[in-house]
Write a structure and sequence with these properties.
Shape: globular
Helix content: 40-55%
Length: about 140
């Protein structure tokens, strides 16, 4: 993993597994339960996120997430991951304001319905995020 975004993706996935006590059956069960609903984003795979993108009307950008490392635990746990970050991964041109507006609305809905994020009633109408999973895991696990 050469860059920080992939390392962060990896750390968030580990944090997800820690929360599930590394129980693969529990992970699979929760993935199946959230397959057709916006819930439990924490356990969404990259494929699930890719399938969600067309459902919000942005089908033409979905394949840009293939092998990107963007998955549910990154969305649910990384305090810096927001709709701007997702727009960059999707490669939505800045001039495409309608697509960006749709993504912002649907991404915020995803956070509200499928994560533990709580909407803050302030001027920028943002979500309060949990501490970054990289802060929670610390650097010691990557020391040889």
């Amino acid at each position: 993993m050469a860059d920080s975004s992939h390392r962060n993706s990896f750390r968030c996935r580990i944090k997800c597994l820690q929360r599930l006590n590394y129980d693969r059956k529990e992970l699979q069960k929760r993935r199946e339960e959230s397959q057709n609903e916006i819930k439990d984003v924490l356990v969404w795979s990259n494929d699930h996120v890719i399938c969600w993108i067309p459902s919000i009307g942005l089908k033409e950008y979905a394949n840009n997430l293939l092998e990107s490392g963007v998955h549910g635990s990154l969305i649910a746990l990384d305090e810096s991951f927001n709709f701007h970050t997702l727009a960059l991964w999707l490669q939505i041109p800045l001039r495409t304001t309608q697509a960006c507006a749709v993504l912002e609305r649907k991404f915020n809905h995803l956070l509200a319905m499928g994560t533990d994020r709580q909407f803050e009633e302030n001027d920028d109408k943002s979500f309060r995020r949990a501490p970054s999973c990289s802060k929670n895991l610390g650097q010691r696990m990557f020391v040889a």
